[in-house]
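Example 3.2
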Amino acid sequence: MLLQSINPATETVIASYPALSTAEIQHIITASHSEFLSWRQSDFPRRSELMHQAAKILRANKTELGGLITAEMGKILTEAISEVEKCAWVCDYYAENAESFLQPENISTELSESFVAFQPIGIVLAVMPWNFPFWQVFRFAAPALMAGNAAVLKHSSNVSCCALAIEKIFWDAGFPADLFRTLLIGSGQVGEVIDNPLIAAVTLTGSTPAGKAVAARAGSALKKTVLELGGSDPYLILADADLEQAVDACIFARLLNAGQSCIAAKRFIVVDEVADQFEALLLKKMTRKTFGDPLTAVDMGPLARIDLRDELHQQVVDSIAAGARLDLGGEIPAGQGAYYPATILANVKPGMPAFDEELFGPVAAVIRAKDEAQAIKLANQSVFGLGAAVFTRDTERGRQIAENELEAGCCCVNDFVRSDPRLPFGGIKTSGYGRELSVFGIREFVNIKTVCVK
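Structure, written as tokens:
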């Protein structure tokens, strides 16, 4: 089997790699486990020193690494460089906070001493996607390594160059050679890695079907999983919203990374009272958004692959056939590359792909609600539950809706949803379970051990 990296802007092959054999996979996992047995004895100052060094390497090489991201999956260069900088942030964050996050916690009982310790569990297998090829990896790897674990990465096949570059960053930072390893394998080989008795846990970011498959395989072996899956994030626009601010936030959150984000704004649910104004302003501003060569000054590059672009277009076509109104875009441009324009679908209703499914690209679905209550109901009428936002000048009412009424793992008021190393990140329903980032993320893959002394 051959893994290929193809530039989605030019459709040229960047690199090809043969998939590892079963024997080669076993060799890497065995070496990684051996490294773990030593690493788990290391102290936090040593771990912190190396993780800070990884952050320095990322910042020093951000332009080159950003260019690699752009070449492999099409993200515009400015966004790619920002992604690398964010990876440096998460490395520094855990380098500075891991020790305090994992300090033993004393609990008062009738015993002379009782406490909870947080200890590493072994090798964590990460199955990662292509849309944020560096960030998705570092947000798992930084806490996993700082907790004393080892890690092996099965990255998406179309970003194998990024996967190898990440491995080299940890090597260059001074981490033990086999502590973080990349496995160049196809998706059909993931099962045998999960089954390996030296793999302690699995984390996956990807589609809901992929998450279900990995969870089933890991569950059969009683291995812990954390899943961050798809989303169809609703953004509620209430009657008293600042429409200029709301539209700007919606567009940014819809078109970032050409719309290829699990937490992108996907369903714009607008109360009737301001729907006409919202739609007019959205059309005016979305019309200005450009796509093209991701190395130039455009708003969007291509989608990551031709097949993904074609799948998105079919969802648009099917939604129009079901009664949605096309206000902008919606046509595959002529020429080379996996490009798709900024697109607006209005009159979207439940039962249409634009409402029910995740649209992984620059397509905004506008849904009208008669009032606030129906807007909340429509927002929650989804199998997904990753992120959500509400826009209103009544921030206290917005807070109450975000905290108590929206079914999602992250809810924002008058802002777009994003990940932040300081805050837990993850979803509910078919958007997955478990949390990444913050103190919650580093405690997902540790043994929470009770120790009692009489």
